[in-house]
Structure formats: structure tokens, C-alpha cells
Amino acid sequence: MWLILLLFLISSFYYRCNGIFIQKRLGKNRREFNIYKIRSLPESFEREKNFYGKFIRKYKLDELPQLINVFIGDMSFVGPRPETVDYFSFHKEYPNKLFEIKPGMTGLASLYFYNEDILKEKNIKIDNVIFDQWLYLRKNKLNLIYYDNRNICYDLRIIFNTIIKVFF
């Protein structure tokens, strides 16, 4: 908690606003909840000029307040990443069975698309499919693989691989 508090204070001073970013997400049983993150972007979204934001995103420090979501029961450590409420207005075919489990701080798709921002910036077309559509379909496929194979050993393996990916 001390690290979350320290990052909150730094972000608050750095961006001159609330250091916690709060956003509506959909969780288990399609229940809306607020996800908490350390603010890593100014309101103007100047990513390339923002060393602090790049640093805390690189090491996933902006995700630490989601531990609060885990402790209050909105999320788990491992599972599909929770999507924004607005996301579903564009992607109606989201697999319903993914709403049977809690979303996670990390997961199979999170590991595979660890550098998703870099991929998006390239504006890639894959097999004549717009990149966002390809990314959406690929994430769902990975989330369904997790859904079908989830167990404590698989979760521990994903947590271990997340730690390796983030810090090494």
C-alpha cells in the first residue's frame, strides 16, 4: 500500500490532478465496477514526451491499485482483462462465458499482448482485417483458452510468467 500511496502522490503532483485514474469496467456477470489505476497519462495524452508515464506503464506500476479491486472482490489475480463498458458497444460478440469468471489483473492475453500499445501505434493490417478487429478476436481466443484450462497451477504459471515479463 505504501508504494500505491507514493505513486498516487507523485502522479497527483506530476499531472496536477487526481493521481488515481478511475474507469467503469464490466466484470463477472456483466456487473459494472470501477477499476483503479495510477494516472500515467496527462489529459492531453502526450505519451512520447512523458517519461514518468512510460516508466510506470513499462513496469505495470500503474496497475497496482487493482489490488484494491482484488481485495473487494471485483477482480482476481488471473483472468481475462476487464473491458470498458464502452468497448461492448463496438464488440457485441464478446463470448458470454467469459462473464462467468472474474476478470484478472493479468492473464494469458495480457502476457501475449504485453506491448499492445506498440502494436496499435504501427496501424498494422493483418489478412485484410483491421488491426483492432484482429486484436479483439485474438484476445478472445486466448481468454477462451484460459477459461477452458483454468486451475490453480495454470494461474500460478501465468503469475510467474507475468513477473518475468514485467521485470526481466
Shape: globular
Number of strands: 6
Query: Helical residue percent?
Result: 40-55%
Major sheet strand order: 1-2
Low-pLDDT residue intervals, each spanning 5 or more residues: none
> Number of helical segments?
8
Order of helices and strands: HEEHHEHEHHEEHH
Major beta sheet summary: 2 strands, antiparallel
- What structural class should be given to the helix and strand makeup? alpha+beta
Domains, number? 1
Mean pLDDT: 86
Instruction: State which percent range the strand residues make up.
Output: 5-15%
Radius of gyration: 16 Å
The rounded distance between the terminal residues' Cα atoms is 23 Å
How is this fold's topology laid out?
Blueprint: H1 2-15, E1 20-26, E2 32-38, H2 51-58, H3 66-71, E3 76-78, H4 87-90, E4 104-106, H5 108-112, H6 116-121, E5 125-126, E6 129-130, H7 131-149, H8 152-167
Parallel strand pairs: 3-4
Antiparallel strand pairs: 1-2, 5-6
Provide a descriptive summary of the structure in words.
This protein is an alpha+beta fold and 168 residues long. The protein has one domain (2-167). Helices cover 46% and strands 14% of the residues. It contains eight helices and six strands, in the order H-E-E-H-H-E-H-E-H-H-E-E-H-H. The chain has helices at residues 2-15, 51-58, 66-71, 87-90, 108-112, 116-121, 131-149, 152-167; strands at residues 20-26, 32-38, 76-78, 104-106, 125-126, 129-130. A two-stranded antiparallel sheet has the order 1-2. Helix 4 links the parallel strand 3 (76-78) and strand 4. The longest helix is centred in the last third of the chain and has 19 residues, at 131-149. The protein is globular. The two termini are 23 Å apart. The mean pLDDT is 86.
